[in-house]
UniProtKB/TrEMBL annotation:
Keywords: Signal. It comes from Linum trigynum. Transmembrane segments: none annotated. Residues 1-28 form the signal peptide. The keyword DNA-binding does not apply. Pfam families: Glyoxal_oxid_N, GO-like_E_set. It comes from the Eukaryota. Residues 462-566 form the Galactose oxidase-like Early set domain. This is Galactose oxidase. Residues 54-453 form the Glyoxal oxidase N-terminal domain.
Amino acid sequence: MATKSQFLPPILPIPLCLFIAFLPEAAPSWPLPSEIATGGAWVLLHQSIGISVMHMQVLRNNKVMMFDRTDFGTSNISLPDGKCRFDVTLSPVDCTAHSVLYDLASNTIRPLVLQTNTWCSSGSLDADGTLIQTGGHDEGERVVRSFAPCDDNSCDWVELYYTSLMNRRWYATNQILPDGRIIIVGGRSVFTYEFYPKSSSSSQFDNQTLNFLWETRDPDEENNLYPFLHLLPDGNLFIFANNRSILFDYSANQVIKEYPVMPGGDRRNYPCTGSSVLLPLRLTECNAVGIPCGTPRAEVMICGGAPPGAFAKANNQSIYVEASRTCGRMTVSDPNPQWVMEQMPGPRLMSDMILLPTGDIILINGAARGSAGWNNARDPVYNPFLYLPDEEDPSRRFIILPPSTTARLYHSTAALSPDGRILVGGSNPHPTYNFTAGPYLTELSLEAFDPGYLNPDYAHLRPSILTVESSIDGTVKYQEMFSVSLMLPFPDPYEPVAVVLIAPSFSTHSFGMNQRMVVLGVERQPRFGLKMNVIGPKDVNVAPPGYYMLFIVHHGIPSPAVWVKVR
Ligand SMILES: *[C@@H]1O[C@H](CO)[C@@H](O)[C@H](O)[C@H]1NC(C)=O
Ligand SMILES: *[C@@H]1O[C@H](CO)[C@@H](O)[C@H](O)[C@H]1NC(C)=O
Ligand SMILES: *[C@@H]1O[C@H](CO)[C@@H](O)[C@H](O)[C@H]1NC(C)=O
Ligand SMILES: *[C@@H]1O[C@H](CO)[C@@H](O)[C@H](O)[C@H]1NC(C)=O
Ligand SMILES: *[C@@H]1O[C@H](CO)[C@@H](O)[C@H](O)[C@H]1NC(C)=O
């Protein structure tokens, strides 16, 4: 029975499903959570995609936007049809691409035309799933660019005029807000935030000062660029920079509270680059329509970084100090929150933290010594770390995963893809795309890390989503019930099925902007049928409007995602 079910067509008549589901002899032995957790495999997707992936964003049609910068000379991939960039002052004229669109299904890329300089820029999807991408360097520093996904090959970047932003935004961070606007915070030597789109009566409120950005800047080294932003379920922003954090009301330009300084002395933001995630927001007590559910608890986790001085030592003395070994967790929604510090299995900086559909976190990429910035790091950390946030025993929360063979240091990226893999690219671009300069080479390859749950031995256990039915097709509405038809090859009635939403993040400089996971409330578990009733997210603060990947998870094994629009 078990073998046969692998070859069944994806959409089953219900009685056949039930028949399979409840045959006692069909029950497999489920892998232990520890067996799943310790697994994982690296897959080389492309030896070269022609550019180094400095920025990455998964889009709602299973294509992935990847781009670099434009002022680094010609890349290793040409623009099609004899196209060139319009900057004719360049000599020779640049007819190469600095951005590609990767198609997950076909594992192919399409070069795109990027004109203005996106070096160390930022971005966010808007509520319609269009990438709004902001800032960069030189002529690109105040540019807003957009990319609307399309199903043919017709779409490309659209770049708005040179002064679409009120300040230069180089090393800024973006976050989509509950009302669908995007906030853009900080940037090098810029101590303000602004919104996109602008209000019709462009006013002072479009460009506000945030002293916290000034206060957290270390002389010479900064250590507060690419601040970590998380939209909290009370509608305010959590902002972390250097070693401090605030709860911020961006509408009133008011700091509501300052959290305790993160202990330990390490710095966490560029160039002492660590990473940060908002742990899953759990709406599991929201299990019926019409009964108000509470605001979920919000907990932030920040890992890695470097001690102060790491950048200067690397940069002008070639001394590469050991990176931070610590993570801090804080329940930011508590009335009197405190950091709880934990030790990682080893030092690391410039690692991406990725939320998995299981609610666990993977730390991937990075180095054990030095700092961010050109050639400032040494000792690549090839092993991802898995972190189990719900494991009671802190000494058992970290698991070291199988290593890659590619150094992924400065300007590497990672993002969760809808099939449950982690896409990994970029690292160490050298000027003029020099492919011989060291100490680490310009890296054009694209890889995937398949977490343990994708082990082919568990393929027959993998759940899948057949349909999502709601009052408007493909849309999940706030607090409205919708249903998910699923296929559980071996339902275990003692193990609940989790339904989770994950927002695709804009990944750059080791931080996933907008990364967010919401565990939805379930009115009915699929015990006596293969349909579950699920309650849409509580409100726009818990899940700002936009496209999310919807996964179901059973026994630690997630389904592939389907895309839903939340509004
Ligand atoms: C550049 O592109 C060529 C042709 O696609 C490829 O063979 C080569 O490996 C690429 N170079 C690097 C450094 O990836
Ligand atoms: C935005 O605010 C900053 C800091 O006050 C200022 O330097 C800049 O000129 C402002 N931009 C506009 C367009 O008003
Ligand atoms: C936090 O950072 C500030 C500014 O760099 C520094 O003066 C202070 O000592 C740091 N505190 C801790 C606990 O690391
Ligand atoms: C060392 O590096 C820092 C940061 O880049 C710089 O501000 C400082 O002037 C440098 N010191 C020397 C002696 O070069
Ligand atoms: C690439 O870098 C190496 C090492 O720094 C240097 O010797 C070489 O001249 C560079 N090549 C080009 C084309 O700039």
